[in-house]
Design goal:
The structure holds 3 protein chains of 3 kinds. By secondary structure, chain A is α/β, with parallel strands linked by helices. Chain A has 3 domains: 19-109 and 247-321, FAD/NAD(P)-binding domain (3-Layer(bba) Sandwich); 114-243, FAD/NAD(P)-binding domain; 325-391, 2-Layer Sandwich (Alpha-Beta Plaits). Chain A is built from 10 helices and 24 strands. Classes of the chains: A alpha/beta, B alpha/beta, C alpha/beta.
């Protein structure tokens, strides 16, 4: 080759695919309230669903067309991109694979009962007892004990207090202040008061002692209207309810790494970004739902599950997706295979093509943001509409256009 | 790979102050990957030079070029036309590049636009760390594939020294203690007994100590 | 210099704010707007080329922190603006000619304000010569 011939690079034609696959099946990880609701809605939209649940069962799900329930199962691998994810699932000791178009993560939270409160049960236990129909004569809710009870647990407690009062249970509700910073909570508080729930302002740890079939709770009454001098109240309650503490599941870091998505500083699937505040993630086709994003009320969870199912149905369309969004393309001739694009892409759309010995951008995953285009050390990546020439303002390029 | 970083623009401007036609040439190899001498960096430096001279009231012609690997005669030849047009060349390849250019274009001033530092590894985007000391007599086998020459500030063969604290070296800069790394690695391999052996003084004649080095492979020279 | 201003605008925030500002009127004729899918698409070379082309002032409009659709694009853009300002300083140009601006879509008034401030800044520098 002459020097001139060597200087001219060989170019392969660059092309963005016209269509990408959109498998009409969705993987839902977690069979609780949020996962179950999303699964049912997705089936309603005519999509197939594979529900992966780590326990022995999930809310009523099986038996419907297109529904597959894998119990004692967990997700151990996820390859591919939106429309064509390949999930590796360990189910009952066996490894199975499923191809899906989208993934919903609804793995819930871990709860721990509050420590060192004698005779107390958790909100979850109280819900179970109410659901079982056990008659309870009197119950005392203890909120804001060590620290301010988070809104999600507070609203649950308020809800249960109201429901118990409706069943003619005597309800005492001790808290530092009544938190109503969510739609419907102020109304719930007033309804609870009308139903007879006694709200007692309390700022110190009450003295709790066991009685024959109940507990005695001694607390200072700080309510306005308690009188010009402070008095000590002595309450008797069969059941004391202290909200459990919610923690992100210990599986979250491993799952986040497997899914190539991010956790927030507390360990929930909810990084601080307003674009991700509705269950979307950094990756097209990957969604997070329910408590694993942070403890949320049941109403909010169900609303989100419906919205997510709708978004997935519209995203997956009819089986193939026309690529009408900007996509970055790598020129294998120029690519130095340095992996910068792999590392910089926030949407995990850049990978390695081992045969071509070049980086590759997956159209189905690409958002067309151009971060890889800007950072590529070899200037090997382009987005048609936003080329370097397009970005050099017209008078800088000599007045053209 | 070879790792370097761009010189401050003022330094480069001072080097080429008196010229009217300048060529900035980069290299598509190591320096491109470590974001110091690739096509983008050539464009940025060329633009900066034009703006610098315009601010001084001069319109200076600054051309741009790339070589695939600036250490190769044939690749350097591909930019001959542009080099001959220029009065001076700023090369942002690693130190080998401008020197190769100087040996090809004997009467052309060639100036360095980056500072070449070390043989290192990209730990994450934007972070490169020195890994190989180029000593010419590799002893990685003895140290669990962690180099005491490159990763220990004192190049000790029988470390650590008293300046190792909490896994960090006393020189500061959050530098890892190379000997902590060697220890951790040999422990993981179950080869801590290697540390009980006293290694004798290194023969530094294979390093720079004997002067500029050359490797000749007679088996491929016919 | 030709007294022109260049605004690189992220499609999700800057461009929307620009459209609102345009509708309200009052944007100078010297303003040229360059759309990008994300501020992270902008490289130092694009900013420098704008100055080379004679722009008196350059602005980058990116999404506000923690609202970038590509998570970090606005942070990349901010860093590149800082590096470019360092180069402007090195070559004897005023670094204030390059402005990085965090903006949300409905902020048409703020968009106009940033442009107006930059216009004043570069005009006074022109007068001072």
């Amino acid at each position: 080759m002459t020097a001139q011939e060597m200087a001219k690079p060989v170019r392969k034609p660059l092309a963005v695919p016209e269509k990408v696959p959109a498998t009409q099946r969705v993987l839902v990880v977690g069979g609780g309230v949020s996962g179950g609701t999303a699964a049912r809605m997705l089936l309603g939209f005519g999509l197939e669903v594979v529900l992966v649940e780590k326990g022995a069962g999930a809310q009523p799900f099986e038996g419907q067309a297109g529904a597959e329930l894998l119990t004692e199962a967990r997700l151990v691998g996820l390859e591919g991109n939106f429309g064509d994810f390949k999930a590796t699932i360990e189910a009952g000791g066996q490894i199975v694979w499923r191809t899906v178009g989208a993934v919903v993560v609804a793995v819930g939270v871990r709860t721990e009962p509050a420590k060192e409160v004698p005779l107390a049960i958790t909100l979850t236990d109280f819900r179970r007892r109410m659901a079982a129909g056990e008659p309870i004569r009197n119950v005392c809710f203890l909120m804001d004990l060590e620290q301010s009870t988070p809104l999600a647990e507070f609203s649950l407690g308020l809800q249960f207090a109201f429901e118990a009062a409706q069943k003619k249970t005597s309800v005492y509700f001790l808290c530092r202040d009544v938190k109503v910073a969510e739609e419907g909570l102020e109304r719930l508080y007033r309804s609870a008061r009308e139903e007879g729930v006694l709200f007692i302002k309390n700022e110190a740890r009450p003295t709790i002692a066991p009685l024959a079939e109940a507990a005695s709770i001694q607390v200072m009454d700080l309510s306005p209207g308690a009188g010009s001098h402070l008095s000590r109240l002595c309450l008797t309650a069969e059941v004391i309810v202290v909200p459990e503490a919610f923690f992100p599941s210990e599986d979250n870091p491993g799952l986040a790494a497997l899914l190539a998505t991010d956790l927030d500083t507390k360990g929930y699937f909810q990084p601080a970004n307003v674009r991700l505040a509705v269950g979307r993630t950094n990756r097209r086709g990957l969604f997070v739902l329910g408590d694993c994003r942070g403890p949320s009320s049941v109403a909010e969870t169900i609303e989100r599950a419906e919205a997510t199912a709708q978004e997935i149905a519209s995203l997956l369309g009819e089986g193939e997706k026309k690529v009408d969004w900007p996509v970055a393309v790598v020129d294998p001739e120029k690519c130095a295979y340095c992996l910068t694009c792999n590392r910089i892409c926030p949407h995990k759309a850049a990978g390695m093509n081992l045969e071509e010995e070049s980086a590759v951008i997956y159209a189905s995953a690409c958002y067309g943001c151009g971060l890889c285009v800007a950072e590529c050390p070899s200037v090997a990546i382009t987005i048609e509409k936003f080329s370097d020439a397009a970005l050099v303002s017209s008078f800088a390029s000599g007045g053209a256009g | 790979m070879i790792v370097g970083k761009g010189k401050p623009v003022e330094e480069v401007v001072a080097m080429v102050e008196g010229y009217d036609r300048i060529l900035v040439v980069g290299c598509n190899s190591c320096v491109a990957v470590c974001m110091a001498g690739g096509e983008k960096e050539v464009a940025v430096l060329a633009s900066a030079l034009r703006l610098a001279f315009r601010a001084k009231g001069r319109e200076v012609q600054v051309e741009e070029a790339m070589t695939e690997r600036q250490c190769e005669w044939e690749f350097v030849e591909t930019v001959r036309e542009k080099v001959e047009r220029a009065q001076a060349v700023v090369s942002i390849a690693c130190g080998v590049g401008p020197q190769t250019m100087a040996r090809k274009f004997l009467d052309k001033p060639i100036y360095p636009g980056i500072n070449t530092s070390f043989m290192g590894q990209p730990e994450e985007i934007g972070v490169w760390s020195e890994q190989c000391g180029g000593c010419g007599d590799c002893v990685l086998d003895e140290y669990g594939a962690v180099c005491p020459i490159a990763r220990c500030a004192k190049r000790m063969l029988n470390g650590p020294c008293g300046g190792s604290q909490d896994g960090k070296c006393e020189v500061g800069n959050d530098t890892d203690c190379g000997w902590q790394l060697i220890y951790d690695r040999l422990k993981a391999l179950g080869q801590l007994d290697r540390l009980e052996r006293n290694v004798g003084p290194k023969d530094w004649s294979t390093d720079r100590d004997k002067g500029p080095r050359k490797i000749v492979r007679e088996d491929v020279r016919v | 210099m030709n007294g022109k201003l260049v605004a690189f605008c992220c499609e999700r925030s800057g461009m929307v704010a620009w459209q609102e500002a345009q509708a309200n009127g009052g944007l100078p004729a010297e303003l040229e707007v360059v759309a990008v899918p994300c501020a992270g698409r902008i490289g130092m070379v694009h900013l420098l080329k704008a100055f080379e082309g004679g722009a008196a002032g350059v602005m980058v409009f990116a999404c506000i922190k923690d609202s970038c659709d590509s998570l970090r694009g606005n942070l990349h853009a901010e860093k590149r603006c800082e590096s470019t300002r360092a180069i402007l300083r090195s070559v004897g140009m005023e670094p204030e000619r390059l402005e990085f601006c965090s903006i949300a879509p409905p902020m048409g008034a703020e968009f106009s304000e940033v442009v107006r401030t930059m216009m004043e800044k570069v005009s006074s520098e022109e007068r001072e010569g």
